[in-house]
Amino acid sequence: MAMALRVRRLKEAYRLLPLLSAGNMYNLLGKDDILLPPLLNCSKNLRADINTMCLYRCHQDHRYSTISEAVSEPLVQLDFPSFIKSTIDEPEGPSHCWFNGTPDKKSLKDGIFLVLIAGFLDGSSITEANFASMLEKVKFLQDRYPFLQIIGFQDTKIPLCSSDICTHLLRRTLKEYIAFPILVANKNVIEIASEACYILFNGSESSSTYYGKEADIVILDKAIKDFRAQESETPKIMHNLTSTWVKPTDDFKEPPLCFPLRNLLLYFPGGISVDESGNRLFLSDSNHHRVIVLDGNGKILDSIGSSPGHEDGEFESAKLRRPAASFYHAAEDCLYLVDSENHAIRRADMGRRVVDTFYPKSKSNKDSSIWSWILGKLWPRNDLAAQSEELNPDALLFPWHILESPNGDLLIFNRSCETLWIMDLASGLIREVIKGFSNILEICEPLILEKSMLLNQIPNDWLQQQVDAHCSSKKIPYVHFISSVVTFQDQILICDTVGQTVLKLNRNSSSLSSFQFSNLGILGFPYWSSSPLERVCAADAALAENSIDHIESFNLLPGKIDIQLKVDIPEYVDLIEPLGESCIWRQTRGAATEISKADSTITSSEKVGIAQQWYDEIDHLAFSTSEIEATIEEATMSCGEEIPEGKVEISCSVNSSPGTSEVIISAALYLRLKKDSDGRSDSRQRKADRIADLLNPGTMVSRDVILQFLLASKRDLEEIIITRPVHVRLKFECPNHPKADNSKDIILTDTSLNVNVALK
């Protein structure tokens, strides 16, 4: 009877196969990810028989793809493009919402989309290691193919407005630096697999291709090339596919959801290392793309990195992309940095203050002409040599941790510690690649245990707050913290990626406290608060991302204009340090030029001849630098004059000519909530509200999400340091120069302006 029932089930499955496999576009899934329509009401045994029969037919029919043993043919084709189009037309509905923006509507006609269906929330069936691996592949392809539209998809049964979803997705975006939109749906509007997978489709067609979570990056890369080859025209912006980091800096995408949190002093501290003899700490401020050098007392000594990108040079001009772990080599006085999203190892010479690329090696015949230097500034590109046109699965992709082995090699791990690259420190070449956490432990278990043993002294409740549900499933718990914890003198320092700070544990008293920072002005004006010159000149809305605190127009006679900005600071915050010149950014546009300190001489109100004025202008052009690189006049008050409490003053001098001009002044104020001095304490909710106001969240993120993030951090909110940007625009309308009595000479005028600005 049982045998007859099984034969009947196999016959029923065989009849279903032509319906399930119809079509010319065959889909690929992982060998354990065969999809069946949920509407197909059949038993588990029948589903197993169908899977068996399908796999058998895949081997018998040569029409099916056999790209890899890790993938097999799926059984159903979903209409995912139609679903995406419907959600873009209605970004928020009763059963779905876009968490951090929507895809480009124009690209839906002929763009190529890659959808990552994975567990962005806790409680999903995918493990943390698998999720990290899938995310790395997607982010790599996003950088490799700028035309590719990436979408994340999360299915959940929790109400969409739940604060748990928002808080977790915000933390996930901070941790992984997700720069693509995530679609959250709590209704089964599409027939989709319960397991994680990739969906690749073309907006102009209804066909889709599906890949299981085990599909490697080579398969996905080939599929994208095949999709692109089907199009009639080659994209105008198509980067060299032989390299992974030849992308212009301007194309670098940052998570739009989290841009208010960039105004925190630290934005995901990803790693820390020490120089015991030199009393120095090296803190990777990962999402700010810089490494902060400080001493044991928290005084900031230097900063490595200026903005996201890949560029060697001095500390002020070098560019990194999410630096993570670091290793200080005392004999060389060099700091080896893991440049995670550049897939490189960088070396910072602490004596010469120069950053170079240690791995991969640069081209041997580098053009050092002045023309190449100019092109490099106008179109920043990495000059690293390409390995091959085909991707190498063993290439250094998204490294995160770094340790030194007893024999002097560098041991480099990815974040999930599933891949180990062993690099020779002398030659800078990778000697061996090992995959699998168990295989890695056979080589470097003592080194990992030495690091993880430090975590046993950290309060367990704090550690639990730092991790997601699936992070501690390995043999060694909290293994992903090996680059975030270090010993320094009699203290243990650990990076707090939830509270966005560094904690120190006194090994004698077992007291846990926040690390205090000082000398903040050395960090200078943050790159994300200013707009490039060409963007400012191109459109009036160029600074729309950074809200304008004050706009004012003036009608003045042409000549020298001395501007004094007086910024009122909210009464509930303190200015931690005086505003330094490095934290001020000025720009003029139109019929105005900025006056540097060398040119800021006292001018006479007497008549000036036109010929003399022409010679003066020639001298000014010959002995002054360009407008962008000009030395800015010191923003200091006159001797004996004191700045009132609760105010900040900024000075600026410009020369205006007849016509319309504009002066843009920006500053970075380092603020902190005032300590309660009268014994009365505001509620934690009230403090979070005030910090959210200072962070100035825009329309791209809900204020409630920021509040939930602050309240969930369990950090003393009065210790949070905020970089509050100030943006002021002053517009001038100047008539022609007034003429002297002889109607030949012109008269120069001097004007002084006092502008009061109140922070919102």
TrEMBL record:
<keyword id="KW-0677">Repeat</keyword>
<protein>
    <recommendedName>
        <fullName>NHL repeat-containing protein 2</fullName>
    </recommendedName>
</protein>
<dbReference type="InterPro" id="IPR001258">
    <property type="entry name" value="NHL_repeat"/>
</dbReference>
<dbReference type="Pfam" id="PF01436">
    <property type="entry name" value="NHL"/>
</dbReference>
<dbReference type="InterPro" id="IPR011042">
    <property type="entry name" value="6-blade_b-propeller_TolB-like"/>
</dbReference>
<dbReference type="GO" id="GO:0061630">
    <property type="term" value="F:ubiquitin protein ligase activity"/>
</dbReference>
<dbReference type="GO" id="GO:0000209">
    <property type="term" value="P:protein polyubiquitination"/>
</dbReference>
<dbReference type="GO" id="GO:0043161">
    <property type="term" value="P:proteasome-mediated ubiquitin-dependent protein catabolic process"/>
</dbReference>
